[in-house]
């Protein structure tokens, strides 16, 4: 269960996905979604749940979503504006249990009436019942810190409801407080919720504040030649990636552990310093989530900017589909036998394409009388013999897709596009040299040839 305080916020999906990935809940309840059922169904699909129910918000306030997976069956569902009752059959246990999700009113009068109504509508005795939600209430001084002193009378209706229903507080793990008013000095903490890496240049490197300086430095004098600068970059990028950029998974794990420690410490005594540190760590965590999205989008071979910032699972799925579609694990040879060995598959493909691009026809003498008298105009001759210009090189570089078709060196066009101001002269002089010599250096002219299957399950190369 999670009080999201608005399910349309930019970072909501990222944090929700993290919870699902780490906790694996079969049933997930969202409170204060401030969103309708259509948004709920979108989120349900994104988080890979199988079905959902939604309570609409009232005047852009409130709203509850209930998500569940096929490991449980929903038998019955009844909802009011701020709570619901659901009856689930748990397949692994072979039993049924009622699950109630609620968001108690923030107004004290309405909240007292809410608990009285709940007390009058109890399930049959001995029925398995789980009640969870945002109670907007505490039942002891130990459940809050700061603010006004606790008064037993303020929670009397909640206590009566719990006693009559025979409900027991299941306790908690982690930080004892789940809410803060975030005010400087007079901070109030409350526990009012029950909550049950192929070297390919990575586009995400461009987001690191030290990458541009590192990248451009490889072409600075005396290493002014384009090819020398490229080779220098390729020989040093692995070390930079490991020691400067770092492992995102480990960084995320460390940051989350530090945040948890800070929250536990804040629950014991308020510290403005720790509040500021927590805010900085949350910002770092959000930056890591963004970097992970960029990495998976690049693996999928698509421009993540066209699909929004919050589709990590979409990019992940596309990358997996792209990888699986490109794999050929077995083929039949000319004799009709299945081949599974990788080296034999390579030889089979090489032999086929060698024959395909080889002819048995002999060369004939070309009859010059059949050639039409085609001549170039003086202007066409001038254009063909003219030197390539800086503007032409710039135009063609920026016509390339930023993240598509890296060669064996793994450097994609976006790296040179982003640093044209610093490297444009070196790139231009290299292109000019190729035109003057009439040849491109072999090591930079290498490229990948991808054999793409025309159907989902090929049996022969044909």
Using brief descriptors, characterize the structure shown:
alpha+beta; Endo/exonuclease/phosphatase; five-stranded mixed β-sheet; Endonuclease/exonuclease/phosphatase domain-containing protein; 15 helices; Endo/exonu/phosph_ase_sf
Describe the overall structure.
It is a single chain. This protein is an alpha+beta fold and 462 residues long. The chain folds into three domains: 2-194, Deoxyribonuclease I, Chain A (4-Layer Sandwich), CATH 3.60.10.10; 220-323, no CATH class; 326-353 and 378-462, no CATH class. The protein is 42% helix and 13% strand. It has helices at 12-23, 37-46, 108-119, 156-165, 211-217, 226-245, 248-268, 272-300, 312-325, 342-356, 378-385, 390-399, 413-418, 420-437, 442-445, and strands spanning 2-3, 27-31, 51-55, 64-68, 72-79, 83-90, 95-103, 129-134, 144-145, 179-180, 189-190, 193-194, 331-332, 338-339. The strands form four sheets. A five-stranded mixed sheet has the order 5-6-7-8-12, with no helix packed on it. Strands 1-2-4-3 form a four-stranded mixed sheet, covered by helices on one side. A hairpin with a 4-residue loop joins strand 6 (83-90) and strand 7. Helix 7 (248-268) runs antiparallel to helix 8 (272-300) and helix 8 packs parallel to helix 9. The radius of gyration is 32 Å and the shape is elongated. It starts with a strand and ends in a 17-residue tail after the last helix.
